[in-house]
Amino acid sequence: MTKETHKTFCRFCHAYCAIEVDVEDGRPIAVRGDTDDPVYGGYTCIKGRQLPSQYSTPKRVSKTLKRSAGGDFHVIDINDAMDEIAAKVTHLIEQYGPRSVATYVGSYGYQNSAALHLAKAWHASVGSTSYYTSVTIDQPARRIAASQFGTWDGGTHAFTGADVCMMVGNNPVVSQYTPFGGPPPFSPYARLRAEMKKGMKVIVIDPRKTEVANRATLHLQVNPAEDPTLLSAIINFIFKHDLYDHEFCSHHLQDLEQLKQLVAPFTPEYAAARCNIAADDLIAAAQIFAEANRGVAVTGTGPNMAPRAILTEHLVLCLNSICGRVNKSGERVPNPGLLQPSRPRRAEVLEAQPAFHHGPKARVRNLGQIIGEMPTATLNDEILLDGEGQIKALICLGGNPIVAFPDQDKTKKAMEKLDLLVCVDLYKSATAKLADYIIAPTLSLERDDITMLTDTWYDQPYSHYTRAILPKNEQSREEWEIYWELSKRSGIPLELPGGQLSVEHRPSKFEVLEMLTPGSKVPLKEIADQGKGAIFEAVQVTVEPGRQDQGALLQLMPAGISEQLADVATETYWQSGKITDAGTEYTHLLISRRLKHVFNSSGQQLEPLQKKGTTNPAYMNPEDLGSLGIQSGDLIEVQAAAGSLVGVVESAKDVKPGVISMAHAWGDIPDNFGDVRSKGASTNRLVDDDRTFDKISGMPRMSAIPVNVRHVPEEVA
Ligand SMILES: Nc1nc2c(c(=O)[nH]1)N[C@H]1C(S)=C(S)[C@@H](COP(=O)(O)OP(=O)(O)OC[C@H]3O[C@@H](n4cnc5c(=O)[nH]c(N)nc54)[C@H](O)[C@@H]3O)O[C@H]1N2
Ligand SMILES: Nc1nc2c(c(=O)[nH]1)N[C@H]1C(S)=C(S)[C@@H](COP(=O)(O)OP(=O)(O)OC[C@H]3O[C@@H](n4cnc5c(=O)[nH]c(N)nc54)[C@H](O)[C@@H]3O)O[C@H]1N2
Ligand code: SF4
Ligand SMILES: [Mo]
User: For the segment 443-491, what is each residue's pLDDT rounded down to a tens digit?
Assistant: First the structure.
């Protein structure tokens, strides 16, 4: 019997915790946090500690599968599968043009450090614009808002060392996710506690008293989808009480007076009544935020799934900027990113470059490319709509459209209509069950990776290159290899930032990663040679003075913002206390959330994690259950304008009355509902993508969904 311990990092989620894995006879048997790691310090979560069960579960797809005409899967050699897939792709491109072949990179595509880039390079090489990722059904509004606002080249304040942090619909203690300036995604609770001990004040804006709200200085339990109202009122208060950074505003902001005028109607009393909070709490939030010296407001998925996400994101940018929360000349950029080339960082604004309304158009809803990608909320229509440009084949890298995409029934129709669906998936997921091929992925411990996605998320210059610690399953492929295999078979090479990838010999992961990071501040080999995660202190970047007459201005009023703000100010629906959608009245708003023991639809399959629950409960306030005559644990039907689901209700005091808090990405294919108690249900049964969508991002209303609730007998599910 052999037993070894290896250092690596966990890729169950994007927190990339440094771990030690015990391997016995070639099988991982235990995971611990690596206490030596200078950033993670031994942190892990329940999901990461169950990594070994991913390798041992009989549910794992460990050989590549092909679906026969009868619908059954049989094992196929990976090379034969790739030959067949490549031939079909070539044929479709010849017959229907390159746009007929699409990629969707889901969350486990992101977890492989080369997948995204090689998929994109392949699409460029064949001229297919049908490239989609989960980002455009996640928080595209943040990227869109930033692109039309402009960027402070010195960066915004980091969390560590700040004296305030405002989180708008972000729950990093559970999600281990936070955008720049919020608690780092690794051991977020310890980080929060450490900074609060040093005096940081934390403000949380969330309809639920979340795990992070429980630890906050101040929690504003707002009504869902009212973030634009609340943020406008906070900004207005800051202007009215002269709490803003005049010096920064006068040099670097455009249209300050117009912003002042547009937020003027949002008094604390008006906003408090509309958001259903105390006006004093709103005032306290504005004062705490503006009177601090360092620290920013950040957003999470909550407001990004709700209507007017771009406006919310824009107002957060405005709030941070009027308070001058940027690294100024002479200050250190805490982490300039190690994998990118060096460049000077200056105390000036990089001009706004709106990342939309140029490039190829979608064939529906007058939408176009955003942040260089096609909007995922249009992918189903591009498959279903006949005619030129129709998508005939989809390669799905570690994603699960059936449970994650808006409009579940439409998604199922689309997946079934495809001539070719290839899923690279660890499980026979709801989507993979409909695939023509399920390719066994090379799992995280079997492959090299680097902390590429998180390179600029750390607030220190940290990086971790891990070698594979288990031998590769020869019948598997890494997500990026699919594209190299296609390139090799077609002879069309992939262009990467460091040059052309050979079609002759199979490159190693290290070679690929080197070609993705030419000119990195620290050579990849030096990072890899550490054998563990490390801080590269030598990488010190200080913000240089701005150049005379060179900087642009941050745009407080880009196109469309003034109209949207004026619209919000004139809305009256909230006065009646009634929620209507498509002419029908509703009683509740259903909001999104994350569950600690699973990562979207991943983890639901693993027995040790199933002990924490096998459904996505519909959490409701006990007051609401009382008035509806429903008991915790009952089955309920949740009915929205777009559709309905059956869920298991659970009483939760932390949820605001009138609100249902429910995680997405559960359940199975609609015809195969199964038992909701053992499989859950997708909240995307309540979402339609062609009615409530944002005109720029295409994102439909995926949180704050108007719904009615009724008790249903057990046999309905
Ligand atoms: N209503 C509503 N809808 C939402 C959201 C919401 O809040 N509300 N959130 C949105 C967001 S933020 C996102 S990111 C998307 C997520 O959308 P997706 O990324 O499409 O969904 P996931 O469930 O994360 O899919 C992950 C898939 O990867 C597979 N997998 C697990 N481990 C591995 C592995 O090691 N390798 C490979 N290749 N595959 C693996 C899993 O079996 C699963 O099928 O959903 C979005 N949809
Ligand atoms: N354990 C675990 N971790 C995960 C995931 C998971 O499924 N499980 N998913 C991963 C993914 S894909 C992502 S994108 C990140 C997301 O990370 P986060 O953005 O932190 O996601 P959530 O934990 O859902 O927090 C969103 C919060 O928004 C609140 N909210 C909902 N609607 C509104 C609204 O209209 N206004 C306001 N102000 N708040 C609102 C919800 O109550 C919730 O607390 O998490 C990632 N990490
Ligand atoms: S937070 Fe948990 S799942 Fe995510 S990387 Fe860390 S240990 Fe893994
Ligand atoms: Mo996400």
Answer: 999 999 999 999 999 999 999 999 999 999 999 999 999 999 999 999 9
pLDDT band at 185 (very low <50, low <70, confident <90, very high): confident
In percent, how much of the chain has pLDDT > 90?
95
Kindly state the tokens that stand for 369. 């490319």
Instruction: Using alpha carbons, select from 521, 607, 200, 103 the residue that is nearest to residue 335.
Output: 521
The conformational region for residue 577 under phi > 0 = left, psi -120 to 50 = alpha, else beta, is left
Contact 14, 185 (CB under 8 A): yes
Please state the atom number of ligand 1 nearest to the C-alpha of residue 443: 35
**Whether pLDDT at 714 is above 90:** no
Ligand 3 neighbour 10 (Cβ under 6 A): yes
The Cα-based distances of 121 to 12, 95, 167, 500, 625 in angstroms read: 25, 22, 35, 10, 52
Closest CA to 111 of 532, 454, 524: 454
Angle CA(112)–CA(116)–CA(117) in degrees, nearest 5?
Answer: 115
* Mean pLDDT of the region 345-363: 96
H or E element, residue 588:
strand 588-591
Q: Which residues are placed with Cβ below 5 angstroms of ligand 4, an ion?
A: 138
Ligand 2, CB within 6 Å, residue ranges: 13, 107, 138, 168-172, 174-177, 205-208, 210, 222, 224-225, 227, 300-303, 306, 591-596, 598-600, 661, 703-704
What's the pLDDT score for residue 717?
52
- Which tokens hold the place of 36? 């030596």
Residue pair 130/100 in contact by the 8 Å Cβ criterion: yes
Within 10 angstroms of residue 161's Cβ, the number of other Cβ atoms is 13
What distance in angstroms lies between residue 138's CA and the mean position of ligand 1's atoms?
A: 10
* DSSP state at residue 587: S
Quick: pLDDT tens for 530-540.
999 999 999 99
Query: Token digits for 533?
Result: 């995660």
CA distance 679 to 429: 12
Tell me the residue type at 94: E
